Amino acid sequence: MSRPSLLIYKKRADEQDARKVEAAEKPTFVRYFIKYCEWMRVVNFSEMTIIGKERHLARFFAWCNDRGVEEIGEVTPVLLEQYQKHLYRYRNAKNGQPLSVVSQMGELSDMRTFFKWLARKKYLAMNPASEIDLPKLPRRLPRNVMSIAETERVLAEIDTNTAAGLRNRTMLEILYSTGVRRRELARVCVRDIDHGRGMLTVRLGKGKRDRIIPIGERALAWVDRYLEEFRSRYAVEPDTGLLFLTVRGKPVTPDQITQLASRYVKKSEITKSGACHMFRHTMATLMLEGGADIRFIQKMLGHKQLNTTDIYTHVHDRKLKEVHTAMHPGALLRPHKDRKAGEESIQGVDPASDI
Known about the structure:
- 53% of the residues lie in helices and 5% in strands.
- The protein is built from 14 helices and five strands.
- It has helices at residues 6-24, 29-42, 47-66, 77-89, 101-120, 148-156, 163-178, 182-187, 217-234, 254-268, 276-289, 294-301, 306-309, 315-327, and strands spanning 193-194, 199-202, 211-214, 335-337, 344-346.
- Strands 1-2-3 form a three-stranded antiparallel sheet. A two-stranded antiparallel sheet has the order 4-5.
- A hairpin with a 6-residue loop joins β4 (335-337) and β5 (344-346).
- The chain is globular and about 60 Å long.
């Protein structure tokens, strides 16, 4: 039997290379998501935003693959409508809980933005997600806002005679004074605190926006003590300059801040649950109650849109209740003597009525 010529081997090699190229150019979800991530980095999206979109879209891609859909061109409006119903009907395997409307909104919004980008970049002839209706978000008030007394009770639970306790008290004092987010607090550097002006620079906050906000004298006093008694002892070279460190000299992470804040809230037994964001809500609410302009609260919190800050105007409902209680004649149940019958009755209620 004659041996195959080199031309035959070359032909087979060329065919294999062609199949590899064809597979590499196949318009799969993963291929275009890699391009999407590269584009987001080029236009300066934050890594946290990219990670969040990756998590949402990975679930969508997996759902499509389970149904034999692997390429972006195979996605239709009907398929996306089925996915939206899937999110609505989804139940957690552990506790049977559905996805919140906010979670559904996040999943669908990231999916819709991805397909809009694909169509804009001409990777798709049309956008199959253009007609998807996002769920209407409920207008919810901040939950578990602490009073001044409750906040002080939480802070008093921290044993500041220990090094870790001193650091923890300082972190929570800053949360209470400024309302910064936990990730923003973890990024604060020593140089970001201007003791003379009483200002804190928040660098690369949400949306990669910097802002300068006031910080109270009490929080600054705790910072001074922390710098002298903790950070000077535990900082190691090369020093990152970050303000808050662990006892091993490593940067404190956002999750660690949440864990310790939650622990002190539970320990205080104030009958409210929460952690870092509860301090943020409390700061905004107490300042608004004290007469601060809503636009100042917006600046403190780092909200891009004023309507995001409007949730804190529920404070005015409390004041409205106070006025109603003080001024409306039927607002209180005031026992008095009925002049004719000589019997005690309730003001505003007809004692003879049985309906």
